[in-house]
Amino acid sequence: MERLQKVMAHAGVASRRASEKMIKEGRVKVNGAVVKEMGINVKKTDLIEVDSVPIVQEQKYYFLLNKPRGVISSADDPKGRKTVVDLLSGVEQRIYPVGRLDYDTTGVIILTNDGELTNQLTHPKFGVEKTYIAKVTGLIDKKPVIRLEKGVVIDGYKTRPAKARIIDVDSKKKY
After folding, report:
1. CATH number, domain 62-126
2. Which parts of the chain register pLDDT below 70?
3. Which of 14, 48, 83, 159 has the fewest CB within 10 Å, making it most exposed?
4. Catalytic residue (one of 46, 102, 104, 141)
5. Calpha distance 42→144 (Å, rounded)
6. What is this structure's pTM?
7. RNA-binding S4 domain location, by residue (predicted)?
8. Cβ atoms of residues 31 and 44 within 8 Å
9. 77 catalytic, yes or no?
């Protein structure tokens, strides 16, 4: 069983907050009865209607994309830059990236409409490790690697300690 507003959000009706507003306004019925209070749990077999229109659960979609350089890891961009969602132009479902890769970074990223999976992969409490391999120009001083291993402060928050190591050095090319 899941909370009504969560089921509505997963069906693409509205965000959870907007769904809560619809419930308070008396626009939602469960099995024919108007529901106005929060915290109602529903089953998959329950008939949920919004404004007398039955909702249908959204099919889950999963895409694995090799993000190219020059594309942002976002569903939309107010600056008009190309997004990872733009690369899947034939997909009509609402999808979004799981996590982020920098604009100039290439690599594999997951796109989905599965909010539960997104939460399990991105929320720190689940402890999912991410692996990044960076090719850099110049020789690396070990001090920044040690800093990563202790955790660094970004935007006022200290990151968790990272496992960091130098895989290879090409002393001829100095990278």
Report:
1. 3.30.70.580
2. 174-175
3. 159
4. 102
5. 51
6. 0.68
7. 2-59
8. no
9. no
